[in-house]
Specification:
Blueprint lengths: L1 H7 L4 H17 L2 H4 L6 E5 L2 E4 H19 L1 H7 L2 H28 L5 H10 L4 E2 L2 E2 L1 H11 L3 H24 L4 H11 L2 E9 L1 H5 L6 H10 L5 E2 L2 E10 L10 H10 L5 E2 L2 E9 L5 H13 L4 H8 L3 H4 L4 E6 L5 H8 L11 E2 L4 E10 L2 E2 L2 H34 L5 H7 L4 E2 L3 E2 L10 H7 L2 H6 L6 E2 L4 E11 L2 E2 L2 H33 L3 H8 L4 E6 L7 H7 L11 E6 L5 E10 L7 H28 L2 E3 L10
Antiparallel strand pairs: 1-2, 1-22, 3-4, 5-19, 5-21, 6-18, 7-14, 7-15, 7-17, 8-13, 9-10, 9-12, 11-12, 16-17, 20-21
Helix pairs in contact: 1-18, 4-5, 4-6, 6-9, 7-9, 9-25, 10-25, 12-22, 13-18, 22-23
Length: about 625
């Protein structure tokens, strides 16, 4: 943004002088240091193995996309906090470090995944399946589009599976005692009988009558509860460029655009292919030539692919590779495949980076071009959108220029761009007008630097061809509201506090009376009744706070009742007396599931302990990196 402002103010005399000085500094210092190819940055070094800054950046981008998908609009607000962004980046780096430590341990232990395990894992990936079955066509297409070779995919998956084997080894070697699982099974099915008395707050609220002096005293003692948040008044300019109607784009412009981008409306040629492949080895070409002679003699290409091809995926399908677009495969393979003219034609021996091939044509689709009439509306809509974006960009740049050249006023920009300066009343960050409820706008509106300098803000892009510039007119710091302003609120809070104190005092009296067996008289005096709770389980449909308290209470003994007061989830008070605990003596089939769950939990703990041990014994060096700016 500094360079944007520099360009925006380049027309001013002072700015020109600054630019001249910068140019002179380049000339005097030499440009060698500016054009020297920098060495790749390293984010961390783990036992001598580098984790590059680019690896960290890629992993961070993936994690950011995952969080954005999970949290939605809330994530944009979190991104406005630099500490949160740094925390996410640090967490991602720690994951990469742990991953590298695990890879080193896997190599040390000699853990290796076989080719068959890798192949089975690839076939099970949902990305490569169609109708629940592995599709070699999708496999080839997705590989070509992603730019990942089959070898790279296999190596990456082999690495992931090797890590999983180490984790599985820890989990499989962990165990929970059968007696422990049996006890948990019995405890999970435990029954508890109790009695409950609710203490109605409304009854005690009627007993509270506060004078104005008492309310004022409460206000004075709790000023922090009556704070008015920091507030600001701002002026702002809103640039809002609406999209032009597609109907306004003339026919000639649409036709010219269609012709200029005719390739975008062409469906490329496709061939449905099958092949027989042999890996590069001594005698492979001669063997494939002999197979070609057998095909020429009448043997089935598909059957020979099943028995002779070393491409396991396509071989099982008679060599079928599915539909392939032109220029998506190895160049030599592609050239030979698209040279086949008729269905059933078979190529000669073709050499590619993967091996040697015989290719046959199963079906074909020639190039097809969509007519202008079919794509006219889409072209018009796109051109209209592009024109609106272009208009917005030009006005946005001019807005940036004017608000930078005249930093203490919005009037000049408003006059030239025919915009209206909007003035707000005082508002807090939580109560901003709808158009200003953007974390970047709020950050600027409440920026101490912007306020103290009395400057216009930077141009803030709001999306959808909207941008905003603001300046702070007046600020009102956080301070307690006047008593007269919050007197009703203070009375309500003071009444609630006094009501709760009376209710807690009553609950304590009942708890003491119940412990002595004298509860009947107390309940009669306060006109309260007891609710019987019989055979309560951990899954019973009762108040969650009650269930939690009830199953945490000690079992009653002969000379000591088990009584406790608690706050229910609705904020009301209650007193509960535990009468009986019934624990089953037999185990059920749940014991096996519980034991398996405990095994997994113990395995996860051991894995975490392994990570801690590897970190403790490792030589890990973190490098200070300048994080690239996030695109909000």
């Amino acid at each position: 943004m500094f360079f944007d402002k520099l360009r925006a103010g380049a027309q001013g005399t002072v700015s020109k002088v600054i630019l001249v000085l910068i140019i002179l500094s380049f000339a005097l210092a030499g440009v060698g240091s500016y054009v020297t190819q920098p060495k790749e940055e390293v984010a961390a070094v783990v036992n001598g193995d580098d984790i590059s800054a680019q690896t960290l950046e890629n992993a961070y981008r993936n994690e950011r996309a995952r969080l954005e998908n999970q949290l939605g609009p809330q994530f944009s607000e979190l991104l406005s906090d630099p500490l949160y962004v740094e925390q996410v980046r640090r967490s991602v780096l720690e994951q990469l470090v742990e991953q590298r430590l695990v890879d080193q341990k896997v190599a040390e232990l000699g853990i290796y995944v076989s080719d068959k395990q890798v192949r089975d894992a690839i076939r099970a990936l949902p990305e490569f399946q169609a109708d629940g079955q592995f599709s070699n066509e999708r496999y080839q297409l997705l590989l070509s589009r992603s730019g990942i070779s089959a070898d790279q995919l296999r190596d990456n998956l082999r690495q992931d599976l090797s890590r999983q084997l180490l984790l599985n080894a820890l989990i499989d070697s962990s165990f929970a005692l059968e007696a422990e699982a049996g006890l948990l099974d019995k405890l999970s099915r435990q029954l508890r009988d109790a009695e409950l008395v609710r203490i109605p707050l409304n009854d005690f609220a009627k007993q509270v009558s506060l004078s104005d002096e008492q309310v004022k005293a409460y206000y004075d003692a709790n000023l922090a509860k009556f704070q008015r948040p920091e507030q600001v008044k701002i002026n702002y300019l809103l640039l809002d460029t609406h999209s032009e109607a597609a109907a306004q784009v003339d026919d000639k412009t649409i036709a010219d655009e269609y012709q200029a981008n005719i390739n975008a409306y062409r469906q490329p040629a496709e061939r449905k292919l099958a092949h027989i492949m042999l890996l590069k080895a001594d005698g492979a070409q001669e063997k494939l030539t002999a197979i070609a002679e057998r095909i020429a003699a009448g043997e089935s290409f598909a059957e020979l692919a099943k028995t002779e091809s070393e491409d396991a995926f396509s071989g099982e399908q008679g060599g079928d590779l599915g539909w392939i677009e032109e220029e998506t495969l190895d160049a030599s393979f592609d050239k030979a495949a698209f040279a086949l003219a008729e269905v059933g034609d078979v190529s000669g021996v073709v050499e590619s980076a993967d091996g040697f091939h015989l290719i046959t044509l199963l079906d074909k689709k020639d190039v097809q071009t969509k007519p202008l009439s079919e794509v006219r509306e889409a072209i018009a809509a796109r051109l209209a959108k592009e024109q609106a974006a272009s208009n917005f960009y030009e006005q946005e740049q001019r807005l940036a220029d004017l608000t930078f050249e005249f930093p203490d006023s919005l009037d000049m920009a408003a006059q030239e761009l025919n915009l209206k300066v909007v003035s707000t009343e005082f508002f807090s960050a939580a109560e901003a007008p709808a158009i200003l409820k953007d974390p970047r706008v709020i950050a600027q509106a409440f920026s101490a630097d912007l306020r103290e300098q009395g400057m216009n803000s930077e141009v803030i892009e709001l999306g959808d061809n909207k941008a905003l510039v603001l300046r702070v007119v007046e600020q009102r710091p956080a301070a307690p509201r006047e008593f007269v302003e919050v007197q009703a609120q203070a009375r309500e809070q003071a009444t609630q506090v006094n009501t709760t104190e009376l209710a807690e005092q009553a609950a304590t009296e009942l708890q003491q009376a119940w412990s002595k067996g004298e509860q009947a008289a107390w309940l009669a005096k306060h006109e309260l009744s007891v609710t019987e709770l019989n055979a309560i389980t951990r899954e019973s449909e009762q108040d969650a706070a009650l269930i939690s308290a009830l199953f945490a209470m000690p079992a009653p003994v002969k000379d000591a009742a088990s009584v406790q007061q608690l706050t229910l989830t609705d904020g009301s008070l209650a007193v509960v007396k535990l009468n009986q605990v019934t624990t089953p003596t037999d185990s059920t089939e749940l014991k096996t599931q519980i034991q398996e769950g405990q095994n997994a939990i113990q395995g996860q703990r051991e894995y975490e302990s392994l990570i801690l041990a590897l970190k403790a014994s490792a030589n890990i060096k973190y490098r200070e990196l300048t994080a690239p700016e996030d695109d909000f």
